[in-house]
Amino acid sequence: MHQLTIAGKAYRSRLLVGTGKYKDFDETRAAIDASGAEIVTVAVRRVNIGQDASQPSLLDAVPPSKFTILPNTAGCYTADDAVRTLRLARELLDGHPLCKLEVLGDPTNLFPNMPETLKAAETLVKDGFEVMVYCADDPIQCKMLEEIGCVAVMPLASLIGSGMGIVNPWNLRLIIENAKVPIIVDAGVGTASDATIAMELGCDGVLMNTAIAHAKDPVLMASAMKKGIEAGREAFLAGRMARKYYSADPSSPTTGLIGS
Question: Does pTM surpass 0.85?
Fold first, then answer.
């Protein structure tokens, strides 16, 4: 199967994972290893990646030599805050340009503020960042983000942390069919079947955190998510049979049998 390519780099895994909400860094690393993920996203405002030299750094548990670190702007509510946060992250990560942009509009439901997201994306792309962007599942605005120059567009499946799965598959299909950059579902996945459905729809990948970290057994759930992503991708490439209300066609051939 073709690998996932983002900003010119190929990845074997189509599962991207977050690093928050685990009980400690050891559990974080164990779950990431079980997931097979190569891209790991980090909330710069919430996790130490070098901002505080006196505290343990996540990068000791999840080293950049083994994983592609994807700094994100979780907790930012304006374009200016998001841009400032990612510029800090780029300094801490020795000029690393790949980032995940999210500008939130509401602290209760964490739905994206799309005008601020578009504004921040324009600034970051002009500043040399390779922007993967969390956004609403709006086909028009997803296309606008692609045209700005984002390297991946990441529409939500449902609200962050909700575990509701894909609530609007039709919008996702429209987004995927019109895209020339990877489309990665970000937010709302609750279990492995949700991830499988996203891949069967034709998504290029899925990013998740809460679904793994808040499972009763995060490491086992991470393994399940890995398998769900792989199964969904294979099913998409295989091409499912057409849906029929009923079918009188027998499953086995009838020619050459006695009486035929």
Answer: yes
